[in-house]
Amino acid sequence: MIVKDFVIIGGGIAGLSAIKSIREEDTESSVLWITDEDRLPYKRTKINKNIVSGFGKEDFALIDHDWLVNNHVELLYDRVENIDVELHELAFKHRGHLRYKKLILATGNKPNQLLVDNLPEEKIFHVHTARQVENIIRFSKKSIKYLIIGAGVEGVETADQLIKMNKEVVLIDRNNTVIKRFLNQKYSDFLVESIKKSGIEFYPNITELNFSESESGKSILTFDDKKVEFDALILTLGYTPNTDLAVNAELKCNTGILVNEYLQTSNEDIYAAGDVAEHVTGQITGLWHAAERQGYIAGKNAMGKEIIFKLEPFRMKTEVFDEFYFSVKPQGDEDEVVTEEKDTVVRDIYIKDGKVLALFMKNDGARAKLYQQAIMEQWEFDKFKNEIPL
């Protein structure tokens, strides 16, 4: 039976980062990278932001075929069905079995579902994979009315794209505002105002949904005595770590795959990184740069290093409705908040012991990387003012 030195399951940034980490020090060991999608691994955060323009199969690819060849990486398009941790053996949907010496699980997450009686599957869409977004693009040629459930980052970005296509868009959420995970009430209110100005109907605090069909066969969702007719329903309800393989392999899991500070699972030869990993703090990151860093450390530690993964502040940025939003949410123990405004730029800077620890910002996207650097390096406020003046 074929044996691979390193096997990485998952075609996202955590998987790629793990491979790059391994190849920095070892160019000879065999590396197998597995994706269950129909294309080269790609930047997932791009797809729902390009519904208007559309995209080709390799437009957002993280690497190309030459990179795979030059780095001696075998990419396999298949689904792993089972992990036998005793035999170090993987069973594939299409290609039999093989064995691994070290395994890195970067299986990401899966969309949360909506439980509404009688809701027809053919009317439900997601924006998690490129194929799913391509389905939305195809369906848009014959549909007008869209209902988006979930006003997080993906829901708002998707609504922005659809309204630019002159669709009728309704956005609803169970929370009292939008992008609640990353924005405070002030900046959420800014965004809600822009959403409504664009022509999108927004309904917060929605908890009960009922589906029905009109006499003419139109799909209708009812909430708070409001009836919304729709051609397509897009679910952006957040994600749950994709732990199916790990659970079946009897690795320790909670919401995600439990890992120690070295990103090692309950099995010493298996590591987990990215959106699927649940850290010793109980946190699951669910963010691009965090997954990238975790993959890098998991790769190093799979080679025998002992690098501790430290969670960094969560950063969010998005550009919607011709506005730019950036946030690193405060932890609540800051001493001071400084608010500054100039033209359309607004920023709230959170300071503790003279250092900048958190920030909300609107409409200064050209300097987003500087803002991020300031937070990650905890600049003194005086330095912040000098380096990023307003």
TrEMBL record:
InterPro entries, alphabetized: FAD-bd_OxRdtase, FAD/NAD-bd_sf, FAD/NAD-binding_dom
Cofactors needed by this protein, per the record, are: FAD
Q: Name one Pfam family in it.
A: Pyr_redox_2
Q: Which UniProt keywords apply?
A: FAD, Flavoprotein
> Is Flavoprotein tagged as a keyword?
yes
Name all FAD/NAD(P)-binding domain ranges.
5-295
GO molecular function ontology, one term from the record: oxidoreductase activity
**Which PANTHER family did the record assign?**
NITRITE REDUCTASE [NAD(P)H] (PTHR43429:SF3), PYRIDINE NUCLEOTIDE-DISULFIDE OXIDOREDUCTASE DOMAIN-CONTAINING (PTHR43429)
Family per similarity comment:
Belongs to the FAD-dependent oxidoreductase family.
Q: Mind telling me what this protein is named?
A: NAD(P)/FAD-dependent oxidoreductase
Q: Which organism is it from?
A: Plebeiibacterium sediminum
